[in-house]
User: What shape does this take?
Amino acid sequence: MSEITPDLVRHLGVLARIQLSDDEVQRLTGQLDAIVDNIAKVSEVATPDVVATSHPIPLNNVFRPDVVGVTLTRDQVLQNAPDQADGRFRVTAILGEEQ
Assistant: This one.
């Protein structure tokens, strides 16, 4: 027998302050019942001898080595800047005053 009833779905809707139509109640009743059934299946296989995991596949550090590569010079970086001053990009203030 289903644990989720239309009355329970309506009650949950009231608690969540969500106005549900009759069609939504019927659809959500079936969906929530399927969710509860799937949680019950997972609970059946979750035994003390099964180690809890946060991820099904072991994760490894995927960072690449930090190697210095070819970089642009300051002049190359600033050559297309619309405005520059003292070797830096010059932009308008966004806070309304100079910092």
